[in-house]
TrEMBL record:
Pfam families: tRNA-synt_1c (PF00749), tRNA-synt_1c_C (PF03950), tRNA-synt_1c_C2 (PF20974). InterPro entries: aa-tRNA-synth_I_CS, Gln-tRNA-synth, Gln/Glu-tRNA_Ligase, Glu/Gln-tRNA-synth_Ib_cat-dom, Glu/Gln-tRNA-synth_Ib_codon-bd, Rbsml_bL25/Gln-tRNA_synth_N, Ribosomal_bL25/Gln-tRNA_synth, Rossmann-like_a/b/a_fold. This is Glutamine--tRNA ligase. It is an enzyme of class 6 (ligase).
RNA sequence: UGGCUUAUGGUGUAACUGGCAACACGUCUGAUUUUGGUUCAGAAGAGUCCAGGUUCGAGCCCUGGUAAGCCAACCA
C-alpha cells in the first residue's frame, strides 16, 4: 500500500535524505532495543511503531535486541512479556538478538582497545573517580591509573575477568579526555565487575560491559543502519561515534544514532522506575493493572493493537518535550471499538421498572442489533418481561425539558423494545424510589413494523429483564493521577498525586444473558455507557468486566456534575466573547488583513486598504479602541486600526484623548504607510 | 558559573528551495439518529518565545537575549 504522505517526520526525512544521497535501501536495517527490566509501556509503543513502521515502509529488517548487560536488574519474565507485547501489537521482528550474545566479541575488542592504549584498568573507589571527573563546568583530572602501561592493564583486566577481584574494586575505562565538556567523554567505564548470574550467560562472566560500550557495537555487529533512541542519549552520540572510530572497518556499514523525544501521556507516569514503584508499593495490582500505561495494562483494559498504533501515528515524532493528552488515546480506542464492539445492555446502578399493562408472567424474546455501524454484524436475542431494571439516573420525578429520559407522564423508548410512559413511583420510608411504574405502548415493539413502532420519542433507555439478567462485577477506572504531569514537580513526589478513586468496583451489575458466554478477547459496548471487556479475573460463576472507556457524553458535560474527579475543564480565554457575532467578525477580518499589510504593495495594497475601510463600516468605536494598544512592532495592525479609525471619524465619531494619542503615535512612527494614514486623519 | 537540545492555537504535530500558518485531538453551534454514541455541516481558537537585522516578502535566514529539558550511576 502506498501511503499518501507529503510530509515526513524528521527521522523519516533523515532516511529519505540518506537514500537520496546514494545510500542503498537494501542496507536499511533497524532495531528495537529494550532492556528486559520492566514491562513495555505506551511510550515504548512510539519507538516500536517508529522502528517497525520504518521496517514496513522500506521492507527492511527490524531486530528485537534485548539490551541485557546488567544481570542485577534483568529477568527472563520481562523478556517474555516484551516479546508478547510486540507480537500483540502486530509487529514481526527479523531476528531476536541479545547484547549478551556479543560479550565475547566485546571483550576481544576491549583487549584491542587496551593494546592500542585507548583503555585502562582503574582500581580507585567510585567516589574518588567521581571527584576526579569534575563537574559540567569544571574539567576533570587524571587519576593515578591513567598512565599505566599496556602490559599492566592487560594483566589487570585478565584478572578482572578471571574473578580475582571483588565486585566494585576495579573497572575498565576508555582513555579519552578528562577535560571534555561532555562528561561522558571523561574516561567512561567500559566494564565493571558484577558477581551475579546472568539470565542467559549464567556464570560465564563476572565482568559486564556498560551500555555505551555495548549498544553502538551491537548496532555495528548487526549492521543496523539507523539506531534510533530517545533524546536523553543525545550526549552519548559523541561516545557512540568515538567507539566506532576505534574499530570501524570501512568495508562494513557504519551505524548512526539519531534521537527523538520520548512521549509522555497526561495524568500518568512513564518511567520504568516509577511504574515499578507503583507495582511494588501495591498502588496497583501489577504491571498489567488496567490503570497502568503499560501495553499489558492497556490490553487488559480493553485497548486494541490498532488503537495503540493509531495513537502512535497521530502523536507523531519530534525533538521537543511534550505531554500528549489522554483524550487522544481515548479517541483512538473509541474510534476502533465503535466499528467493532458488539452492542449489549447492562445496568450498573439499577432501579426497578414495572410495566403495569404488560401481561403478568409473560416473557418474550426480542431481537437486538449487534452493531449498527456494521450491517453484517447480525443480531442476537434479548429477553423481555414486565419487570426490568433501568439505570437509576435515567429517571427523574420532575425534570427540566432538557432531560430526555424517563419522567412521570413522559414517553421514552426502551432500546430494542417498547415505548413506555412513566406513571407513578413507589418510595420507601425515607423517600428513596424503590419502583417506577409505567405503561407500555404494546403496539410499539421495535422492528414490528407498526406505525407505533416508528414513532419518534425524545429519549432511549437501556434496560435488562430482572428475571433473565445475569449478575456480574464491573470495574470502572479513572486516571491514576490527579495531576496532568505528576512527575514534573520538583518539590513533590509523583506519589502525592495518586487519585484515590482511580478504581470503582460495582459488585453487582445486571446484564443481559447474552454476556454469560463472553470471552477474554470479546469487546462490548454496554449501550449508552461505554466499552467493556472481560477481565482475566473472571470465573464462570463470577464474571468481571473492565470499563475500557466511556462513550463521549455531551449530556454529562452540560450537567456541572458534582463529581470530585479531576475532569475540571480548563478555562479557555475567549476574547471578545461579549460582543455581537457579526461585529466581531468584521473586526477580526480587519486584523487578519492588516496583519500582512506591510507585506503588500501596489494593487494588492490598495485592495487591502479598501477592504479594511469597507469592513470598518461595521465596526464600533468601542471595539476598535483596544487596538490602539497594539504593540509598536505590529505595524500592520496599527495601520489597519488607523484606516478603520478614519472611517469612524468620517461617520461622525467624536475625537477623544485616546484617539489623539493614537494618531500622534502614528505620525511619529518610522513606517511610512502608517505616517501617511495618520496624516490623512489629521486633516 | 560549562556543554547539548528544543521553542508554532488548550494539546500533539505540519508548513518542500523564504510566498495568505495546515491537520488531528479537544472546545462550541446546528442537522440526523431507537445509544445525549456514531455520522454530517459549521464555528471559535495562533502575528509562530522576546528584541533587533537581511528581504518586495521571514515560522523558516542572520545577531543577541529568554525559558524549558538533558548531562557529573560500576543503570539503560
Amino acid at each position: 500500500m502506498i501511503e499518501e504522505r507529503d510530509s515526513h517526520n524528521f527521522i523519516e526525512q533523515i532516511i529519505v535524505d540518506d537514500l537520496a544521497a546514494g545510500f542503498s535501501s537494501d542496507k536499511l536495517r533497524f532495531r528495537f532495543p529494550p532492556e528486559p527490566n520492566g514491562y513495555l509501556h505506551i511510550g515504548h509503543a512510539a519507538s516500536i511503531c517508529l522502528n517497525f513502521g520504518l521496517g514496513e515502509m522500506y521492507n527492511a529488517p527490524v531486530n528485537l535486541r534485548f539490551d541485557d548487560t546488567n544481570p542485577a536488574k534483568e529477568e527472563q519474565e520481562y523478556v517474555d512479556a516484551i516479546k508478547n507485547d510486540i507480537q500483540w501489537l502486530g509487529f514481526q521482528w527479523a531476528t531476536e538478538c541479545y547484547s549478551s550474545d556479543y560479550f565475547q566479541q566485546l571483550y576481544d575488542w576491549a583487549i584491542q582497545l587496551i593494546k592500542d592504549g585507548k583503555a585502562y584498568v582503574d582500581g580507585q573507589s567510585a567516589d574518588v573517580m567521581a571527584s576526579q571527573k569534575g563537574t559540567p563546568s569544571t574539567p576533570g583530572v587524571a587519576g593515578p591509573f591513567r598512565g599505566a602501561s599496556v602490559d599492566e592493564n592487560l594483566a589487570l583486566f585478565a584478572r578482572m575477568k578471571a574473578g580475582e577481584f571483588e565486585q566494585g574494586s576495579y573497572v575498565l575505562r576508555a582513555k579519552i579526555d578528562m577535560a571534555s565538556p561532555n562528561m561522558l567523554m571523561r574516561d567512561p567505564i567500559l566494564y565493571r565487575i558484577v558477581k551475579r548470574a546472568h539470565h542467559r550467560t549464567g556464570n560465564d562472566w563476572c565482568i559486564y560491559p556498560m551500555y555505551d560500550w555495548t549498544h553502538g557495537e551491537s548496532d555495528y555487529i548487526e549492521q543496523i543502519s539507523h539506531s534510533l533512541c530517545t533524546l536523553e542519549f543525545k550526549m552519548h552520540r559523541e561516545l557512540y561515534d568515538w567507539f566506532l572510530d576505534q574499530l570501524y572497518d570501512p568495508a562494513l556499514l557504519r551505524p548512526k544514532q539519531r534521537e527523538f523525544a520520548r512521549r509522555n501521556l497526561s495524568y500518568t507516569v512513564m518511567s520504568k522506575r516509577k511504574l515499578l514503584e507503583l507495582v511494588e508499593g501495591k498502588t496497583v495490582t501489577g504491571w498489567d493493572d488496567p490503570r497502568m500505561p503499560t501495553i499489558s495494562g492497556l490490553r487488559r483494559r480493553g485497548y486494541t493493537p490498532d488503537s495503540i498504533r493509531k495513537f502512535s501515528d497521530l502523536s507523531g515524532i519530534s525533538k521537543r518535550d511534550s505531554v500528549t493528552d489522554v483524550s487522544l488515546l481515548e479517541y483512538c480506542i473509541r474510534e476502533d471499538l465503535n466499528k467493532s464492539a458488539t452492542r449489549v445492555m447492562a445496568v450498573l446502578d439499577p432501579v426497578k421498572l414495572v410495566i403495569t399493562n404488560y401481561p403478568s408472567g409473560k416473557t418474550e424474546m426480542l431481537e437486538a442489533e449487534n452493531n449498527p455501524e456494521d450491517p453484517n454484524s447480525g443480531t442476537h436475542e434479548l429477553p423481555f418481561s414486565g419487570e426490568l431494571y433501568i439505570e437509576r439516573e435515567d429517571f427523574k420525578e420532575d425534570a427540566g425539558n432538557k432531560f430526555f429520559r424517563l419522567t412521570l407522564g413522559n414517553e421514552v423508548r426502551l432500546k430494542s423494545a417498547y415505548i413506555i410512559k412513566g406513571e407513578s413511583v413507589v418510595k420507601d420510608a425515607s423517600g428513596n424510589i424503590t419502583e417506577i411504574h409505567c405503561t407500555a405502548d404494546l403496539e410499539s415493539r421495535s422492528g414490528s413494523g407498526t406505525e407505533a413502532s416508528t414513532r419518534k420519542v425524545k429519549g432511549t433507555l437501556h434496560w435488562v429483564s430482572i428475571q433473565h439478567a445475569i449478575k456480574a462485577e464491573v470495574r470502572e477506572y479513572d486516571r491514576l493521577f490527579l495531576d496532568e504531569a505528576p512527575d514534573s514537580h520538583e518539590e513533590k513526589s509523583f506519589m502525592q498525586f495518586i487519585n484515590p478513586e482511580s478504581l470503582k468496583v460495582i459488585k453487582e451489575a445486571y446484564m443481559e444473558p447474552f454476556l454469560k458466554d463472553a470471552s477474554l478477547s470479546d469487546k462490548f459496548q454496554f449501550q449508552r455507557l461505554g466499552y467493556f471487556t472481560l477481565d482475566k479475573d473472571s470465573t464462570s460463576e463470577n464474571l468481571v468486566f473492565n470499563k475500557t472507556v466511556g462513550l463521549r457524553d455531551s449530556w454529562a458535560k452540560q450537567n456541572p456534575a458534582p463529581s470530585p474527579q479531576a475532569n475540571q475543564p480548563k478555562p479557555q480565554n475567549n476574547q471578545g466573547g461579549g460582543l455581537p457575532q457579526g461585529q466581531r467578525s468584521a473586526l477580526n477580518e480587519i486584523q487578519k488583513i492588516a496583519k500582512k499589510y506591510t507585506n503588500l504593495s501596489g494593487e494588492k495594497l490598495a485592495g487591502a486598504r479598501a477592504d479594511i475601510a469597507k469592513l470598518a463600516e461595521e465596526v464600533s468605536y468601542e471595539e476598535l479602541e483596544p487596538l490602539f494598544q497594539t504593540a509598536a512592532k505590529k505595524v500592520g495592525t496599527r495601520i489597519g486600526a488607523m484606516i478603520a479609525l478614519s472611517v469612524l471619524l468620517n461617520k461622525g465619531q467624536d475625537r477623544n484623548s485616546e484617539i489623539e494619542a493614537f494618531i500622534s503615535a502614528g505620525l511619529a512612527d518610522e513606517n511610512e504607510e502608517l505616517v501617511n494614514e495618520a496624516k490623512g486623519i489629521k486633516n
